[in-house]
Amino acid sequence: MLHIAGELTIYRAAELKELLLQALGQSSGDLEIDLSGVTEMDVAGLQVLMMAKQAAQALQRNLHLMNHSPSVVEVFEILNVTAFFGDPLVISESPA
Amino acid sequence: MNLDAALKTFIVESREMLVDMENALLTIEQTPDRDESVNAIFRAAHTIKGSAGLFGLDHIVAFTHVVESVLDHVRDGHLEIDDELVVLLLSSGDHLGTLITAIEEGQMSASEALDGVTVPLLAQLRTYVQRAGGPALADASITVSTAVATTREDDARLERIARDGTDPRSHWHISLRFGPNVLRNGMDPLSFIRYLGRLGKIVGIATLPDALPPAAQMDSESCYLGFEIAFSSSASKSTIEGVFEFVRDDARIRIIPPEGRLQEYADLIRELPEQDIRLGEILVHCGSITQHELEEALSIQQNALADAQTAGQADPEVPMLGKILIDQQVVEPQLVDAALEKQKRIIEKKSGDGKAQENKTVRVDADKLDQLINLVGELIIEGATSSLLARQSGNPQLEESTSRLSGLVQQVRDSALQLRMVKIGGTFSRFNRVVHDVARELGKDIVLRLSGEDTELDKTVVERIGDPLTHLVRNSMDHGIEPVERRLALGKPARGTVSLNAYHDSGSIVIEVGDDGGGLRRDKIFAKAVERGLIDPGRVLTDSEVYALIFEPGFSTADTVTNLSGRGVGMDVVKRNITALRGSVDIQSVENVGTTVTVRLPLTLAIINGFQVSVGGSVFVIPLDMVEECVAYSDEGESHYTNLRGEVLPFVRLREIFDLQEPLPSRQNIVVVRHGRQKAGIVVDALNGELQTVIKPLGKVFQRVRAISGSTILGSGDVALILDVPALLQEATEEVPSIPDP
């Protein structure tokens, strides 16, 4: 389980990319990413998640997004990418 | 954090835009090339809207959008820009200023208080949009204005429209492929799509990750995503295109209008890098076309491909650019122009040149500057002391060194003072608005003419001259400029002129406020002054003495009191403010031709070049800029004038004025000083030469003392008094040496 908190934006995209790839490289099996702490997300952030999803698929592994924060949900809904990740949108209880 | 910085830039830029807009609005009536002004106003509104959209400031977007619609009609010639519209647009600009100030204070969305202004303004603006009555465009814009009116009901209504639209092709289709640098340039595609949502309803959207490379090659700051959007809106094509104005160069944008021909979709599918079938499905998926239409479109394309002798499935790697571009509907020249201009500005700002420009100016706290000036003042005094000591020590090397030092100190002083010099133009241009508003209020047609805007003066003076000037300008407009009928009867142009002029003159800055109005009525002022008991009925006064009476407290000759002026308060305040700045004010007036009020102010308030003179043991300083020449003088009794190369030169004796009981020396001198048009002599014992003088204000106790404007500390540590030359001149030129206290 990987927690991502704070901004999921271009300012941190490079850092997050490394983080996600590392997480993929270290663990085996499914990777779960907890998004409950994401306060802000932009297209750069979204791309990094998509990249991770595709990378996981290439490794025949599953990547699940969990506890989408309201900011994440908003972006997912605007851009209609929920289906891409295939994870149910469950709004986390803790307000981001 | 970064957003904060960007928001600050937005606030600053928006303010600049609003100033541009205001200036363009105010000058539009005098500008022969109206289009240019209208474009400038449009650009301002458009840019503010665009940037506000990026920050999600929906209330600003909604408001500017309607302003923009009105301007759009003006630009198209559907609407004539008249006085009323100018006023409405000015108020809209003011309101935008208020909204932006609110944002600066952290209020990011509309509030009830602000809506109180927004709503009536919007209503007024909409009547213009409706009046324009241009066919399709007007129609679209009205609906758009309601669509973005930020109320929930409107959104709901739009949604219903969208649901009701059963034919998928009733939607716009927008295809977006952003360039890799979009994110790096600080633009988030998400903002554009969010903003698009304000113009209508996004019926369907598909995000295409196809271009996303494998992890290793991915640059997390490049943009790879593409978007296909089915969009339901009654906005015009240019409005929708306007959403993407900021990324026009960085993205491939195709907009297919509702009822777009299948050919266009076919072209779209072929042009885009994704595989045809997949893309077709996406189009169906996002609701822009039906499955059946897709098949038709694909077959159209297959035929086209066959024609091009490309067998079988289209190769997605071969872009068929430039073949059947739908540019006839994609590109609207005016928008491209606007976009190019904006782009150019952005590029200029980003490029090295822009940066160099930015670095050339440094913002410094006024306090820090004042501190510097104070220190320079101390330096000057201390420098004078050491020069004196060096002279007394008789050490030639030391003397030489201190002399070089005082030269340097002088340069430091000059450049330090220069730092505080600002052009008066900034203050002047504020009056455009004042004149416009006041003229409207008075129902007079008045134009403001500015000259000498480049004249520089001390910032502290600028700050304190604004109010008195405003009063003088208002006064000119209210009392000076006659009603139109009277002007015409006198054979003057119907439009009155108020002018502001500035120039430097012997160490002072002169600001003239003139009008071509009725002039001052000497007899009326005289009668009024007698009535008020200010003067004796039998007294003989020069014109300028009579005019000066209007600066007496409680003096007003206006027959009617308007809410602008005429209550007799104000002119005395003007005089007091100017006197407090060690300045003077003078009036020239010709009946039925006009009045000019001349305000004369010292260039700076802190440090001046002085000319040191003495009477017996008392030392005085005269501001050097006012000194014309010095002549030797031998006292000839009691006269108060002398012959200076055939001219009568009135003079005053400092000995008399300050009642100095010192023995008369064998030789005296006259220092000839000039202030404005007046020239007079000051009789002193000895001339001690130039010195740099730091003006120290006198204590409250000495406030009522005449002829002294301040004090300074000499190198020896003694205190010298600085002579108030204007007051002395008045004394010298007056027959009876008694002047009312200013």
TrEMBL record, chain B:
Keywords: ATP-binding, Chemotaxis, Kinase, Nucleotide-binding, Phosphoprotein, Transferase, Two-component regulatory system
Domain HPt residues, every copy: 1-103
Role description: Involved in the transmission of sensory signals from the chemoreceptors to the flagellar motors. CheA is autophosphorylated; it can transfer its phosphate group to either CheB or CheY.
Stated name of the protein: Chemotaxis protein CheA
Residues where Phosphohistidine is found: H46
Catalytic class of the enzyme: transferase
Keyword ATP-binding among record annotations: yes
Cited Gene3D superfamilies: Histidine kinase CheA-like, homodimeric domain, Histidine kinase-like ATPase, C-terminal domain, HPT domain, SH3 Domains
Domain CheW-like: residue ranges: 597-734
The keyword Nuclease appears for this protein: no
Catalytic activity field: ATP + protein L-histidine = ADP + protein N-phospho-L-histidine
Tree of life domain: Bacteria
Any Pfam family hit: CheW
Any one GO MF annotation of this record: ATP binding
EC number(s) on file: 2.7.13.3
InterPro entries per the UniProt record, alphabetical: Bact_Chemotaxis_CheA, CheA-like_dim, CheA-like_homodim_sf, CheW-like_dom_sf, CheW-lke_dom, HATPase_C_sf, HATPase_dom, His_kinase_dom
Chain ranges of the Histidine kinase domain: 398-605
GO cellular component, one term: cytoplasm
GO biological process terms, semicolon-separated: chemotaxis
